[in-house]
Specification:
Layout lengths: L1 H10 L3 H14 L4 H13 L3 H14 L5 H13 L2 H14 L4 H13 L3 H14 L4 H13 L3 H14 L4 H13 L3 H14 L4 H13 L3 H13 L5 H11 L2
Helix pairs in contact: 1-2, 2-3, 3-4, 4-5, 5-6, 5-7, 6-7, 7-8, 8-9, 9-10, 9-11, 10-11, 11-12, 12-13, 13-14, 14-15
Length: 249
């Protein structure tokens, strides 16, 4: 059937052909929300965010009781920077189903984009209450708390994350930055070393380690990591500044 072919094309990444088929299907079956959702997914993949938004809204108009639809709309609006509208959509999700942790996570992401990190952390804590065994939520909470200046709570969240999964480089990197804030340079170096061992291709980890080593007087090692960061594609202004500082030592 046309529907099956459209799904197969989508699964194989033939997005343009899938869009063409789904566009025809929604005209033939204009009450079927799953078809509008599929069209929206593919339009989004193809970079047509405006058209994808219209398709998601068409799906939602046909089934306003399904919280998954405003959840998807909120995600798309988050991507396009329309944060106030995204917030309204995610609030409608929570009115329909206030027990879905993913909705609180998305709300937290929207708040973080608006740089309301303290409130974002509160929303993520609500998600954790509903899903207490998801380690990545604690790691994300660590970052929000750091951005909100709540370092003690951030450190606690990071250690909780590590107790659940000690192999997440992001959590080790967060703890490194927390230790650096507290001038615990050796601890900061130890954590970022671990992050690099778990993800050696991350340029920002090498940049951070280079900065720590530079300020610890270990210039040769610092330069090696700073150059490695540049080799991995970083061109951050901070990296350029650190390279200049290292060259003067």
């Amino acid at each position: 059937s046309t529907r099956t072919l459209a799904r197969v094309l989508e699964q194989h990444g033939e997005t343009s052909r899938a869009i063409a088929l789904y566009s025809g299907l929604v005209r033939e079956h204009d009450k079927d929300t799953s078809l509008f959702a599929a069209l929206a997914r593919n339009l989004d993949k193809a970079g047509y965010q405006g058209e994808a938004l219209k398709a998601w809204q068409s799906a939602r108009d046909r089934d306003p009781s399904d919280p998954h639809l405003p959840f998807q709309i909120a995600g798309l609006l988050l991507k396009t920077g329309e944060f106030e509208q995204a917030k309204r959509e995610i609030c409608s999700c929570l009115r329909i189903n206030p027990y879905q942790p993913a909705y609180f996570v998305r709300y937290a992401q929207i708040l973080a984009k608006r740089e309301d990190f303290s409130e974002a952390a509160r929303m993520l804590e609500k998600a954790i209450t509903l899903a207490p065994h998801q380690e990545h939520l604690y790691s994300q909470l660590t970052w929000f708390l750091m951005q909100a200046g709540e370092d003690s709570a951030a450190e606690k969240a990071a250690h909780t994350a590590l107790s659940m999964n000690s192999d997440n480089p992001v959590t080790h990197a967060h703890l490194s930055r927390l230790m650096a804030r507290q001038n615990q340079t050796e601890e900061a170096i130890r954590y970022i070393d671990t992050a690099i061992s778990l993800n050696p291709e991350n340029p920002f980890y090498h940049e951070h380690l280079g900065e720590l080593l530079l300020h610890a007087g270990k210039t040769e090692d610092a330069i090696r990591h700073l150059h490695r960061s540049r080799e991995l594609g970083s061109q951050s202004p901070r990296l350029m500044s650190l390279l200049k500082e290292a060259s003067r030592q």
